[in-house]
Structures are given as C-alpha cells and as structure tokens.
Amino acid sequence: xxxxxxxxxxxxxxxxxxxxxxxxxxxxxxxxxxxxxxxxxxxxxxxxxxxxxxxxxxxxxxxxxxxxxxxxxxxxxxxxxxxxxxxxxxxxxxxxxxxxxxxxxxxxxxxxxxxxxxxxxxx
Length: 123
Description:
By secondary structure, the chain is of the alpha/beta class. Helix content is 44%, strand content 20%. Strands 2-1-3-4-5 form a 5-stranded parallel β-sheet, sandwiched between helices. α2 runs parallel beside α3. The chain is globular, with a radius of gyration of 13 Å. The relative contact order is 0.18. This is Response regulator.
C-alpha cells in the first residue's frame, strides 16, 4: 500500500500510530525528530506518500520547520502533511497550515477519524 512517514517523539503515540497504520496495510517509516524526518523524506530518493508530523519535536527543527522544508523540496512539495499536535489555539492551526500542513489534527485524536483522513488524503 502506501508509504507513510510518522514523525512523533512520544513513544506511546508513535507505537499507536505505527500499529494503526500497519494494520491498515501501510508501510510505516518512522523517526522522532525533525532532521531525521527530512533525511527519510528527501534523502532516500523515494518520498513518502503521506507524512504524519508532530508539531513539537526535540532538536533544532520543530514541526513547522519540517513542514516548510517538505514544501520547499521538489520531492515532497506535493506530499500531504497531517500535523498532529496538542497546540490548540486558533493561531497555532493557522501557523501549521501556513507552514504547509494539509490537515491539522489535535491530540488526543480519534483513531478512526484519523484513519479516515489518511485514506481520504491518499485517495
């Protein structure tokens, strides 16, 4: 099926996303920080079909930085990016969408609704 890059530093959320997506038949690439996300998404010569991106990440690159970099790279410019975050202020969502997120999903999220969004974005 599809290749989905999961960028999530919370081990429990990461494990949940990996299990849900693999059970749905997807191949999951995963990492826990922004730099690794960019390496996986753009440095392998093969882009993911979709990115699930935590808004708050450890290190120098947060989710907004990663979203901007994905949009700027020719290999990933059109890849759907779902930002998963606990940042719930209206301006946070606006910033996420301006940075290049296709969808903005608040944590905690409904797993069935998330899988439906993933399926819709993958078409």
